NUDIX hydrolase (Corallococcus soli), 458 residues
Amino acid sequence: MSHTYEYPRPAVTVDCVVFGLDDEDLKVLLIQRGVEPYAGRWALPGGFVRMEESLEDAARRELEEEAGLRTSHLEQLYTFGAPERDPRGRVITVAYFALVKLSAHHLQAATDAREAAWFSVWDTPKLAFDHADVLATALQRLKGKVRYQPIGFELLPPKFTLSQLQRLYETVLERELDKRNFRKKILAMDLLEELDEVEQDVSHRAARLYRFDHKKYKQLEKAGFNFEL
Amino acid sequence: MSHTYEYPRPAVTVDCVVFGLDDEDLKVLLIQRGVEPYAGRWALPGGFVRMEESLEDAARRELEEEAGLRTSHLEQLYTFGAPERDPRGRVITVAYFALVKLSAHHLQAATDAREAAWFSVWDTPKLAFDHADVLATALQRLKGKVRYQPIGFELLPPKFTLSQLQRLYETVLERELDKRNFRKKILAMDLLEELDEVEQDVSHRAARLYRFDHKKYKQLEKAGFNFEL
DNA sequence: CCAAAAGTGTTGGTTCTACACCCATGT
DNA sequence: ACATGGGTGTAGAACCAACACTTTTGG
């Protein structure tokens, strides 16, 4: 079956930059391409937008299909449309930006033929198409946004220590933070619920666990409160 | 001539939200539609993306064609792709956000058949398609961005008074600012060049004119300086 | 001389930064 | 007992918000 139009039309895809955090580093999910162009190269998960689905639905579908994962945070990043960005012809891609709790989705294998794997964002293989630009844009967005929106929590398990949280910020922002000042500031926002639990199986004093209080944040947000750093 | 593809493809357009500032208010540029759908309704300037041009080039071309204007500041805003946003079928639009010095482009007539006009952003007619959403998104972006990027200057003539600048911020942010604090803060950034000129033809004490120093800003930016409010 | 907007400093409160030691736990 | 990271307070500097009067100019 084929489709005919009076004027030529670009193809439209979505691509997803999915970030996860493990003990070592900030990671991005990549898929190894099986076919030309760029066969064998690693690329961002993504694919063509179907006629009846929204852009965001397309992004969610591709993530499910290619990596078997669901994400709590998904937002549109930027649309890349340089005429020569795909050697097959004019392809415009709407890039999305996702955060997942890597602790949950441990080393998920791709459900279709292709390989999926997590790479350190500071050390990825050479990427297909203009995906290096897309990744760079996503990193910039993450770095900017993490400071004034409480999205960092989407990268951590539901219960976390303040040190984990601090390491997250240090990793994303690429600079060290002062422990005492960091704790003061984040606790002063009154968005963390202090639990009666401590971490397990560590060979030193166990740290207290906290949980991010989404409900409280929504309330404060309405009242004009602004999360910051 | 017609074009055939194996799979159906959405059409892709660009739409531009162009802001300008005059003595009264923040304005947005609208075009009256001549044809169905939404014939007679006002809409954002825009049109189909050609196969050989980039998205940004398309936005610039449409602005030139539909309103005869060039803009200093043009950035991508968001991509709108709900399946039912255009009654003619699947049309994905990449929205752009532009700022122009209204003082220069005085009441420019459209170069093609359609009417173009400036409307107060707080009081527009009913818009075609989902353009009200697009406009709302653009306003939100402007409000957010004006505080941490010196883009407000793109709305003012090259030489302006501090009161004009303050009014700009008050209009965009929808709140009053303290005159002394505002002046202190903006002058402390050392980004304004104080000219040996004052405004003309006012029936009260004439205010000193200033110019924004783009070069100095670029330098400071590289050195890690952050513009803020 | 009146109207209109330009221009100008200080104070008190809040927030930010820098900084070092003791504590709890597991090996 | 030692190694590892957990947890805590203070002081000085910078920044922010609130606030009112005098000056200049044109009509």
The longest strand of chain B covers residues 11-21.
